[in-house]
Amino acid sequence: MGNITVGFLASLPTADRTRLLARAREVTDASERWLRDYPVVRRSSVTAACGLIAAVGMPLLAVPELSLLTRWWLWIFGVDDVFDDPAVPDEVVEAWGARFLQPGRRAPDLLLAAFDANRRDLARYPLFDSLDGAWDDGMAEVVRGMLVERRWHQALATDDLPSYEAYLDNGMTTIAMRPYTVTACVVGGEPAAARAFDMVAPMILAAARCFRLANDLRSEARERNEGKLNAVSLLQRIYAADGIAEDQALDVARTRLRETCAADLAYLDQAHRSAPHEIGTLARFLWAHTAFVWDMYQFYDYDTMSTLLRESAIT
């Protein structure tokens, strides 16, 4: 296999790219050690991609902080693996969601134990005291949104589907950019950004929308085969119901989603360049994360990117 350079990485000077990839390998190793204690991810390892994306977003952080960001994503993948698995009975998924959302829940299973471990480590950072409410609320919103998505997938057989707007609004929650940004703020030690966090809200929304739609564009064929809801297939149904031929409706849907992502990327680029000093680090984080993920999804996903990184095929 020849060496590959992902578009965002290609824009970096060679020395910076080399340092970033080396740091990401350290983060991956540390996060894999955590996964041995909390094996929550059911699929083939996605740790390498998660570690690299954390390093791309917050390149000045040390390995322990980047590892905590990476472990946070691994937990999201672990929950998604359960909620997305049709072999897991609906009542099991619903019961787990209720247990997670119930204040004071205990008798933790593996996922809850991993969540508590991440939260304990995050609470060691001084800024967590001022952002813990936003973090807890964001994590609860992600789980609630995943429960909604699970119910929507079940409704496909009856055509009792949400509107595109409702689907996207929920998907921008389950893509989890808001609590991820709170986590980055805490481990990055950004007190000015914590005080001005509302200023970052428009950027979080743009990043979440682009991330969700890029994910759906990449996973469209697989999710169509699996009978799962996806922004592309949902828009295609809507356009076809208006009388547009199926193939043309598919092209129109893909074009609309790509144009939306392009607009969000342009906004994030401009926003991070003109951001006030107090939110500069988070503005760059949201732009860099989203730009990298968009580039990655043009050819790969977290699974294939992780495989390439393990094989040292990304340079």
Fraction of helical residues: over 70%
What do the pLDDT scores average to?
A: 93
In DSSP terms (H or I, runs of 4 or more residues), the helix count works out at 15
Strand element count: 0
What's the overall geometry?
Answer: globular
Distance between the termini: 12 Å
Order of helices and strands: HHHHHHHHHHHHHHH
Cα radius of gyration in angstroms: 19 Å
Class from helix and strand fractions: mainly alpha
Biggest beta-sheet profile: none
β-strand percent reads: under 5%
The residue ranges in which pLDDT falls below 50 over 5 or more consecutive positions are: none
Question: What would you note in describing this structure?
Answer:
With 315 residues, this protein is an all-alpha fold. It is built from 15 helices and no strands. The chain has helices at residues 7-10, 14-37, 47-57, 63-83, 90-101, 110-122, 128-155, 164-174, 177-188, 191-195, 201-226, 231-241, 246-274, 280-297, 302-310. Helix 2 (14-37) crosses helix 4. It is globular. It starts with 6 loop residues before the first helix and ends in a 5-residue tail after the last helix. 39% of the residues are buried. The model has no long low-confidence stretch (mean pLDDT 93).
Can you tag this structure with a few keywords?
0% strand; mainly alpha; 74% helix; 315 residues
Topology readout:
Layout: H1 7-10, H2 14-37, H3 47-57, H4 63-83, H5 90-101, H6 110-122, H7 128-155, H8 164-174, H9 177-188, H10 191-195, H11 201-226, H12 231-241, H13 246-274, H14 280-297, H15 302-310
